[in-house]
Amino acid sequence: xxxxxxxxxxxLENYDPKVYGExxxxxxxEETVARIRHRPHTAVSQDMxxxxxxxxxxxxxxxxxxxxxxxxxxxxxxxxxxxxxxxxRGDDFSKKSVGDLMTESPQHVYTTDPAAAALSxxxxxGHRHVPVLDVDETIVGIVSPQRVTAFLNRHFIND
Length: 159
Fold this sequence. Notes:
Layout: H1 23-30, E1 43-45, H2 50-60, E2 64-68, E3 74-79, H3 80-89, H4 98-101, E4 103-104, E5 109-110, H5 115-125, E6 130-133, E7 139-143, H6 145-156
Parallel strand pairs: 1-2, 5-6
Antiparallel strand pairs: 2-3, 3-4, 6-7
Helix pairs in contact: 1-6
């Protein structure tokens, strides 16, 4: 028997697309992180004085700043929890930079990842804020609990 004697069968011919029970399930699987509001965000240099970064947290009423390496690439995050940990250690903030106190190499997601990836990173890593990068590894935003909740509400309420 040769390959010419075998009838070709298209493996996708009998493919049934995934059927979702509700729009929220479909949104989490098929919509990307880019559909979750991830802007605005505040990015600071790892060389910035910790005192200045703490002022940015307070003035912006935010819990997390994205830390870049000077080329808009992710170096870490500087969070209210980093500040609390430094206080508990008795650190002298006047002598510290953001790079001294930040959380290095945090878990992140890409704009092209499924929306569920952002929730998964939050749940598994325990981080409330997840940096969002584009395919070139450039910082484009941050996903927070409030932003994820708004995304979920848009799809949950439609059911």
